[in-house]
Amino acid sequence: MNPRVLDITTGLTAQPLIELKDVSKVYGQGHAAMKALRGVDLRIDEGEFVAVMGPSGSGKSTCMNILGCLDTPTNGSYLFKGVEVENLSRNQRALLRRHYLGFVFQGYNLLNRTSAIENVELPLIYRGMPAGERQARARKSLEAVGLKGWETHTPGELSGGQQQRVAIARAIVTEPAVLLADEPTGNLDSARSREIMELLRALNHKQGISIVMVTHELDMAAYATRIIRFMDGRIETDEQNGEAD
Amino acid sequence: MLWNAFLLALREVRRNVMRSFLTILGIVIGVAAVITMVTLGNGATAKVTEQISSLGTNLLELRPGQGHRGPGGTRSTADMFEIDDVQAIEQEISGLAAVAPVASQSSQVIYGNKNWSTTVTGSSNAYLKVRNWTLDIGREFTEGELRSGKAVCILGNTVRKELFSGQDPLDDTIRLEKLSCKVIGVFKSKGQSSFGMDQDDFVLVPLRMLQRRIAGNTDVSAISISARDGISTEKIEQDIERLMRERRRILPGKDDDFHIRNMEELVSTLTGTTKVLTGLLGAVAAVSLLVGGIGIMNIMLVSVTERTREIGIRMAIGAMEREVLMQFLVEAVVLSSFGGLFGIALALSASFWFAGMLQVPFIFNPGIVVVAFLFSAAVGVIFGFFPAQKAARLDPIDALRYE
Predict the structure, then answer these.
(1) Could you tell me the pTM of the whole model?
(2) Distance, CA of B246 to CA of B240 (rounded, Å)
(3) Chain A: nearest CA to B50, how far in angstroms?
(4) Cβ of A35 under 8 Å from any chain B Cβ?
């Protein structure tokens, strides 16, 4: 494959990290059409920790999918570091995810019957990193989320909180520009949830990874530096969180 | 990248040992069947060739009557040959190694209280040369014995076993019908012919003795001729035909009342037959290989559905379409290649065993092993492609949401 076609680094600018301009998303057609997003403008700078809140069906998940380059807007434009994502091919979007984005899902989405360290290594495999370096980095990443000694355990042998931490380790092992977390604490009790949130905050502070996190719970949103609320496909409020430190 | 895909595939195979095994079973059986059939077929061909060449490949046999039987044939009325015919061939046809007259009759042979029914063949020492017989013990006929038709005989190995059971038969006297006959030699055993006949079950006596003392005529019922090495049997066949037509005064335009059997033709006919059979069996076996491939496709399709979520995860963390495609394709190829390897191992042990049981030589043919292996890998590519493409074309969001 022609490497120039896949070179997505050309034209990337530092700021803003993410910019949505009048983005709308419509599912279905005609009478059955469902407007998930109705003109969203959003700008996120590097280093921000953004919590996205809102009731189900308010469009926050759709927005996350678009931010994660898993989906494209029906109208409007999404600029990632100044690059128009809509103009990228399927493969280029895959490469953008590979090099700049980290995902943490509500359901962990780890590979079953695959050890923690192999799960964490997975994104590095796609980056073509040699095995030695890959394992060292995966080990470090697992250590960063407090799972030292659990490397060879499979998801089935880990608790929910541990699985989510493996998922976070997998997301940060590539040192992404943005970590997209969709209800990362949705399946966890409050103690485990706080652990995860502390971890995310530390990553944001220490490693400067920007985080966009969807959550239902105010407690969790309180860890973020900025809280955005969605309602009916629009941004209802967008405020800095003074309480976060 | 390919190496990584290979390692991933290996892990996937290991993760589902039982399913992987059942998946490749079709390929294993297919490959094993193809190789076994071809190996055994080659062994059978080799055996037939070897057995016929033990008769002498440059052997021509001249017999009275037409080759075919049935209406219009003149077999029953055709005259037998005479010893003059043999001499004429010897003198007038060039390029011959040996010419042996043959007359034979079935007869009882008796030694002591033992009694055996066999064929008594009258001929000369040329018979040994033409038919590739060698003596185990004793000697050939002398000129004197042949000329005078003396009552001496050389035994086939079966006759020796039946009458003498281990004893030394040399210089003992057996009875052919009512005639006493001295044993002067025993032939080395040749075993069964490719037609299942015991070649060792006969007694050779001087032609003249058989004619005068047993048959009571001067008939020569066949003439065995062997060409010298490197001489075309076809040419000799034509020469003999011309000579015999002349001697038997067959008018131009009339059919021959004799026929010539060419062993070379027989060899090529028989090996041709076994080769066709080998090809046929191999082709049937190849169909089972194809069915095995469809089995792999089935399982791979199920596997794609089962692992939709996994594919979604891989895509979300940055796997490109062709990487997912490659992963599933390599997995299919790894599976089918494993099948191929198991099949080869199974085939080699099975054909070795069968070869022993069917008493055909085990001929290892690296060509067919390589072809079968490559074919099984190709089956993986062909039947793995569709499922792999299905996986690669999944939409990441849908795949992630798939339960």
Answers:
(1) 0.69
(2) 10
(3) 58
(4) no
Which chain B residues are within 8 Å of A117, Cβ to Cβ?
none
Give the span between the Cα atoms of B238 and A193, in whole angstroms.
Answer: 102
ipTM of the complex: 0.89
Contact between A79 and A56 under an 8 Å Cβ cutoff? The reply is: no
Residue B216 and residue B107: Cα distance in Å, rounded?
14
Which runs of consecutive H residues, i.e. helices, occur in B119-262?
126-130, 143-148, 157-164, 207-209, 233-247
Condensed to tens digits (0 to 9), the pLDDT of residues B326-385 reads 888 998 899 889 999 999 999 999 999 998 888 888 888 888 889 888 988 888 888 889
Condensed to tens digits (0 to 9), the pLDDT of residues A131-168 reads 899 999 999 999 988 899 999 999 999 998 899 999 99
- Residue B363 CA to residue A228 CA, distance in Å, equals 78
Exposure of A178 by Cβ count < 10 A (0-12 exposed, 13-18 middle, 19+ buried)?
Answer: buried
Q: Which residues pair with B179 in a beta bridge?
A: B176
**Across the A/B interface, how many CB contacts are shorter than 8 Å?**
60
Strands A49-53 and A226-231: parallel
DSSP H or E stretch at residue A219: helix A218-221
- Distance, CA of A242 to CA of A80 (rounded, Å): 27
Q: Half-sphere exposure (CA, 13 Å, Cβ side) for B260?
A: 22
